[in-house]
Amino acid sequence: MKKQLLFCAFVGTMTACQRETDIQPASATLATEVAGTYRTNVYLDPSRVAVPTEQMPYTELKAESDSSVTLVYNTKYLTPTSQAIQHVRLSRQADLIQLLVADSSIGTLQTDRVFTNDGMEKQGKLLRINVQTDSKTRLNFSGVK
Questions:
Q1: Alpha-carbon distance 48 to 111, whole Å?
Q2: Contact (Cβ atoms closer than 8 angstroms) between residue 105 and residue 98
Q3: CA–CA separation, 66 vs 90, rounded Å?
């Protein structure tokens, strides 16, 4: 009987001394959650079928503050260019994150089915950008982190 009591006391002490593993809210901000490099491929954007894989365009989202980022769109094909849109505001919706400039939507980020470079399907964060950059040019981008 004493051995059983000592064993129970030992198990109780060990469980009481374990580290706290309760679910804690994430301390990451919205901007740090979306920050990163998003790359496209011919499965996400079939209009890029003629572009070599290593020269596909990509977009970088760089955190500015808790809820705003700088969007940098980079192309390598033909002439390397880079376009930046600063102060892009982020707004969390039910199942996606909205990217806003001057209260108009320029894109979304959501978890969706995406395709890798070799055509395999998986779950991933899909960034879609659709914005008029000037009077003649419209920027369309779909990429995965």
A1: 22
A2: yes
A3: 9
